[in-house]
Amino acid sequence: MRIGLAGAGRIGARHAAALCELPEVEALVVADADAARARALAARLMSAPGGPPGLAGVRAVDEVGELFSAGLDGLVVAAATDAHADLVERALSAGLPVFCEKPLASDLDGTFQIVASAKKAGVPVQVGFQRRFDAGNAAAREALASGRLGWLHTVRSCSFDPAPPPAEYVPTSGGLFRDCVIHDLDLIRFVTGRDVVRVMASGANRGEDFFRENGDVDTGSALLVLDDGTLAQVSATRYNAAGYDARLELFGSKDSIVAGLDERTPVTAVPEHDEEPRDPYAGFLERFSDAYDAELRAFVDVVAGRRANPCPPEDALEAFYLAEACELSMREGRIVGAEEVRR
């Protein structure tokens, strides 16, 4: 099959390399708002030792719009956030299955519109919530569903970045809850199979002033109440110099488990013992490398009609609703019901 890639930046380059490894992908067509960057990525992939395995070739086009006349079977959207909605809508109009990095759109209205468009077109839109494809998170979901944990009483999820993003990223990021915590919110719904009925969130600024200047926070926490009474706690920060840390903990009446705890998790036990120095994860691309590969394999299966969409736009909308509820709770200092933000 022929796959198009819109976006040749950091995550786009990561996806391109993964797509080149998939035997079903015979050709990859790359485009970017910066045509030179797209050409550089295509050249780099073609000049790799042995060339891209299994591919007839990788080529770049000068404009993103050319992707829609390139005879594609599927499109991967890894462009700038403000371009997501338009690219997904164009793919739907062309009847082209699309994988899109989160968010589908920069606001609720745009996300709601894509959900409606995808339903009307009957074309799959897979959203890039890669944590669903992490082996530990998948195992946690299976353990809970099997009854091993008994009934669930507490969930804890964290997203700790080792360093803040560039200052210029913050104004268009959507804020900590929409940009970062939304992964935890989606994962909690996915693993537990439950909906969130109300949230209480708060945030703080202890680091760079550019977060505060843009109405954002560098650290945030939320308490979620699920529809069966389970309590979930989410924590996130831009300042975890020990390394990147993303964990999910489930506590039940029979057993407790944690996903994301391994020899590279940047946590030190005290009192300290003689241990080998840790090699902590540098960031999310490294921590979830296998998950990124797995979600693209899933997309190829979706395009081929071999499996159902594992992360449809309706799920992205639900996660966005919860991020909006957390944001509202933080701003107004009160408990917010999920129905308050739902359309």
Automatic annotation (TrEMBL):
Extract the GO molecular function terms from the UniProt entry.
Answer: nucleotide binding; oxidoreductase activity
GFO/IDH/MocA-like oxidoreductase domain spans which residues? 139-257
On the tree of life, the source organism's domain of life is: Bacteria
Q: Name the keywords, alphabetized.
A: Oxidoreductase
Q: Which InterPro entries match?
A: Gfo/Idh/MocA-like_OxRdtase_N (IPR000683), GFO_IDH_MocA-like_dom (IPR055170), NAD(P)-bd_dom_sf (IPR036291)
Ranges for the Gfo/Idh/MocA-like oxidoreductase N-terminal domain?
1-129
| Keyword Glycoprotein carried by entry | no
Pfam families referenced in this protein's UniProt entry, alphabetically: GFO_IDH_MocA (PF01408), GFO_IDH_MocA_C3 (PF22725)
- Oxidoreductase among keywords: yes
Q: Cross-referenced Gene3D superfamilies, in alphabetical order? A: Dihydrodipicolinate Reductase, domain 2, NAD(P)-binding Rossmann-like Domain
Regarding protein family, the annotation reads: Belongs to the Gfo/Idh/MocA family.
Q: What is this protein called in UniProt?
A: Dehydrogenase
What is the organism field in this record?
A: Actinomadura montaniterrae
